[in-house]
TrEMBL record:
GO molecular function: antiporter activity; xenobiotic transmembrane transporter activity
Keywords in alphabetical order: Cell membrane, Membrane, Transmembrane, Transmembrane helix, Transport
Transmembrane parts of this sequence: 24-44, 64-86, 106-127, 147-167, 174-193, 199-222, 258-278, 284-304, 325-345, 357-378, 390-413, 419-437
UniProt-listed NCBIfam families: matE (TIGR00797)
Protein name (record): Putative efflux protein, MATE family
Any Pfam family: MatE
Membrane disposition: Multi-pass membrane protein
């Protein structure tokens, strides 16, 4: 190849990278706003409730973890729908794509009502199983029961957002999420302090916000389905197809949530100071994780669309570029977290011991954030490709690796803030590394790249 040809080839490569970057950012930037809505809800709840007292904040930590565990298990409603809709759209089947989305929303509504009722009834047992007792348990049960009415809304938000992502529309969920974040803040302050409801007002405010967001997103999807000629009535076959497609992702999500529950169990055993500190660090980690997941969402939509259209070479290019973005974004976010640990701590608590625990754990989380960026993007790529079965097995394998390490921290970690530091080394280090290895090895093969709708 002569110099002129080499320069031309280099320009073509740069042009292709820039085009890929524009596609990634066009999806990821709006998706970022929508993804961070839930962590922002938790951060607002933490800030509002944290000033009620340490036991209230500790109770919120346990209750919100249980609630987010249920929602996290059902995130397949978004992920599976994104992949399914994107593949059909790539294959030129817009009506079928929206039909799959509508069926997914019906599944979300029915599942949400059932789970809300079960969680309300089982609240005392579930809180006790997490190791909470006394005043912490009382506050945790109160928050959990007042927030469960919003669970159907949370799941419909997941499903409808998945439809819009599959259609490569991440702007609508962004605007809805922004409105929800504002409404949640106002309602929490008004109900907790204005109405004097305490921690119960925080749960109710979040529930009302989620129901309102679900209503807005459902209207948008229904309007699109009508224009495309898709039916709006629930269809048993379509609902079952969505449930079956999401089954492996449910198992994958179960492994992640069990790891998080195990982490909270360990934090509970390390005392109220470390448990309160864990709530704050976990809230910041969740915000950062969802920010990185914006890139994974872009990867899901683009990978699903390209595989649906049979474009294998473009699929590989998107894989490489989104991984580069994931690691780079993780490094930037991690630096902010590590340096700003003490400042974050002062926003949420006046307890000196809790502040020290938060600051140390923030440094660990920040240093390991690039690894998380790599892991989250690979997850998104494989989900977009519909490789849920492998992710299910890999998720359970990583849980088996993490569990003994986490339990060792509970048994042998030193007293005081150092215990929380060791817990975050186990979670953000060992657990994330195991996930990175299993997904990375899979991505090096061609097995996951199945083309067609």
């Amino acid at each position: 190849m002569d110099d002129r040809s080499a320069r031309h080839h280099s320009l073509d490569d740069r042009s292709a990278r820039r085009a890929t970057d524009r596609q990634i950012l066009a999806l990821a930037v709006p998706a970022l706003g929508a993804l961070v809505a839930e962590p922002i809800f938790v951060l607002v709840d933490s800030a509002v409730v944290g000033h009620l007292g340490t036991t209230q904040l500790a109770g919120l930590s346990v209750a919100s973890t249980l609630l987010l565990t249920v929602v996290g298990l059902c995130v397949f409603l978004a992920y599976a729908t994104t992949a399914s809709v994107a593949r059909r759209l790539g294959a030129g089947q817009r009506t079928q794509a929206l039909q799959a989305g509508v069926d997914g929303m019906w599944l979300a509504a029915g599942l949400g009502i059932t789970l809300a009722a079960a969680l309300w009834i089982a609240a005392p047992w579930a809180i006790g199983a997490m190791g909470a007792d006394g005043a912490v348990a009382v506050h945790a049960i109160s928050y959990l029961r007042w927030s469960t009415p919003g669970l159907p809304g949370m799941l419909v938000v997941l499903a409808s957002t998945g439809v819009l992502r599959g259609l490569q529309d991440t702007r609508t969920p962004l605007w809805v999420a922004a409105g929800g974040a504002i409404a949640n803040t106002v309602l929490n302050i008004a109900l907790v302090y204005g109405a004097g409801m305490g921690i119960a007002g925080s749960g109710l405010g979040t529930a009302l916000t989620q129901l309102g967001m679900a209503a807005v997103l459902a209207v948008v999807v229904v309007q699109g389905a009508r224009k495309a000629g898709a039916r709006l009535r629930p269809a048993a076959g379509g609902i079952w197809a969505n449930a079956r497609a999401g089954g492996p992702l449910l198992v994958r999500n179960l492994s992640l949530r069990l790891a998080i529950l195990l982490t909270v169990f360990v934090a509970t055993g390390l005392g109220a100071v470390n448990l309160a500190g864990y709530q704050v660090v976990n809230s910041v980690w969740g915000l950062a994780a969802f920010a990185l997941d914006a890139l994974a969402i872009a990867a899901q939509a683009l990978i699903g669309h390209r595989l649906g259209a049979g474009l294998v070479t473009e699929t590989r290019a998107i894989l490489r570029r989104t991984l580069q973005w994931g690691v780079g974004a993780g490094a930037l976010i991690g630096a902010i977290i590590a340096v700003g640990g003490w400042s974050f701590a002062t926003l949420f608590t006046s307890d000196a011991d809790v502040r020290v625990a938060i600051t140390g754990a923030m440094v660990v989380a920040g240093v390991l954030m690039p690894l998380a960026g790599w892991t989250f993007v690979l997850d998104g790529v494989l989900i977009g490709a519909g490789d849920g079965r492998y992710l299910a097995w890999a998720g359970m394998a990583t849980l088996v690796v993490y569990a003994p390490v986490a339990l060792a921290v509970r048994s042998w970690a030193p007293d005081g803030p150092a215990g929380l530091i060791w817990l975050w080394i186990a979670f953000a280090g060992v657990f994330m590394l195991a996930r990175a290895l299993t997904t990375g090895l899979r991505a090096r093969t061609d097995t996951w790249m199945v083309v067609g709708d």
